[in-house]
Design goal:
This protein is an all-alpha fold and 260 residues long. It has 15 helices and no strands.
């Protein structure tokens, strides 16, 4: 018996019904029900909803499709994959594993973002950075990232896609295209790290929250200082940004607190 036939038969027997009962309930002959149960045919698509309603189940359940099972499989895959991303020896396996999941669930944007992540790190971790193979990874990453932006309404997934698109387009020296995506992101004053400063109730909570990002902030301050100095020297306007060392020192202290 097919999976459908088995499910149909089990639903009928669980309710102590005959094939004639089911046929009468949805307006077909007992022979039609017997044919379905024995995989000699399948109901017309227009009969699926009446059949599911008759048994009080969803069409998905009638067809043997369990969306919750799919969700569990995808979630477990992503958690397992993210745990492996620190293992440099498994990059080829990770790539193929995620491709297999995308073949099974081709419309799941979470898997597309995972592919972006793998394709971004793959050249560096496998020693092919700067080769034609690395360029292929970058091109494929852009395709997946743009697909996420076309198909997903989830803001987190879209932001992740933009992040990897910008990183990759920077490497490809496609700055104009990268800027287009970067401009899709919210300005600094709307980001979590900016808004949380209004909500921390005391110094301890402030330190606890911002210590998570001290390393990133320190990197950004270094970069801002360098860009300011380049602009100042080129234009001949402005004074050295004296507060940069002070800010950097405070961030280093915050970073140290994070490690304690």
């Amino acid at each position: 018996m097919s999976k459908f036939g088995t499910i149909l038969r089990n639903l009928r027997l669980e309710r102590d019904l005959t094939q004639a009962d089911v046929g009468e309930g949805i307006g077909v002959s007992p022979q039609a029900v017997s044919k379905w149960e024995n995989e000699n045919g399948l109901p017309d698509v227009t009969q699926l909803i009446p059949l599911a309603d008759y048994f009080g189940v969803t069409v998905d359940a009638l067809l043997g499709h369990d969306p919750d099972k799919d969700e569990r499989e995808i979630t477990a895959h992503i958690e397992r994959l993210e745990g492996k991303l620190t293992d440099e020896g498994n990059w080829d396996a990770q790539m193929e594993e995620n491709r297999a999941m995308l073949r099974k669930y081709p419309k799941d944007c979470r898997l597309m973002v995972q592919m972006c992540r793998i394709l971004y790190f793959y050249p560096k971790q496998t020693g092919i950075d700067g080769t034609p193979e690395s360029d292929k990874c970058a091109d494929e990453l852009v395709e997946w990232g743009e697909k996420v932006l076309r198909e997903s309404t989830d803001s987190h997934l879209r932001n992740e896609a933009v992040r990897f698109l910008v990183y990759t387009l920077d490497i490809q020296v496609k700055f104009d295209k990268g800027k287009k995506y970067a401009e899709m992101m919210p300005p600094y004053e709307l980001c979590r790290e900016s808004l949380m400063r209004f909500l921390c109730e005391d110094d301890a909570e402030t330190v606890a929250f911002y210590s998570k990002f001290a390393g990133t902030l320190l990197g950004d301050v270094n970069w801002m200082g360098e860009m300011y100095e380049i602009s100042r020297k080129r234009s001949g306007v402005g004074q050295p940004f004296g507060k940069i060392p002070e800010i950097k020192e405070k961030l280093k202290q915050l970073n140290a607190l994070c490690g304690e």
